[in-house]
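Students often ask why inverse folding is considered easier than folding. One informal answer: many sequences map to the same fold, so there is more than one right answer. In these notes we will look at a single instance of the problem. The structure comes first.
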């Protein structure tokens, strides 16, 4: 059951109504592309756009990994615009969503098709994903924003995040 720590984390990240929280959910491993999402955040200089990273390297464990340490170092330049939660049980996830505020779930994995995008759509949240694996098929016909997983994926992600932030009508669709 979510507790005061979850609410405090959410409140500490989205401290103003105009804050836009990008939510990444998943295992923290290189194939998921979270390092590219951090690069995208480095290209966004608006302090109202923030990133909440939910997950751990090892399915519910609290162990560190060399990749997680690298991500934490990469995030240092972004200061309070990035928060790592570690592992969060599925039933606690709704507590991390900013109430009434915009939230974006980004799925960058190259696997077959993660469920995070489907879960995000089920919660009525905008979805940003890469054109890889089964994501294009899952998201076909939806209003999801798809970007190519090429050499400029970080640039495409930062553009898409800013576009979603600046156009509430697009997020609503």
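Output (designed amino acids):
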């Amino acid at each position: 059951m979510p507790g005061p720590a979850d609410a405090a984390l959410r409140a500490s990240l989205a401290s103003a109504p105009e804050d836009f929280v990008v939510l990444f959910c998943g295992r923290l491993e290189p194939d998921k592309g979270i390092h590219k999402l951090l690069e995208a955040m480095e290209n966004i200089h608006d302090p109202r756009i923030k990133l909440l990273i939910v997950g751990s390297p090892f399915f519910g464990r609290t162990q560190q990994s060399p990749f997680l340490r690298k991500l934490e170092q990469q995030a240092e330049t972004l200061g309070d615009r990035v928060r790592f939660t570690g592992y969060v049980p599925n039933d606690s996830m709704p507590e991390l969503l900013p109430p009434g505020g915009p939230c974006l779930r980004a799925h960058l994995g190259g696997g077959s098709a993660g469920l995070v995008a489907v879960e995000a759509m089920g919660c009525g949240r905008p979805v940003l994903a890469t054109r890889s694996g089964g994501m294009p098929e899952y998201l076909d016909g939806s209003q999801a924003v798809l970007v190519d997983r090429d050499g400029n994926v970080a640039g495409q992600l930062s553009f898409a995040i800013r576009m979603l932030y600046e156009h509430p009508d697009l997020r609503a669709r």
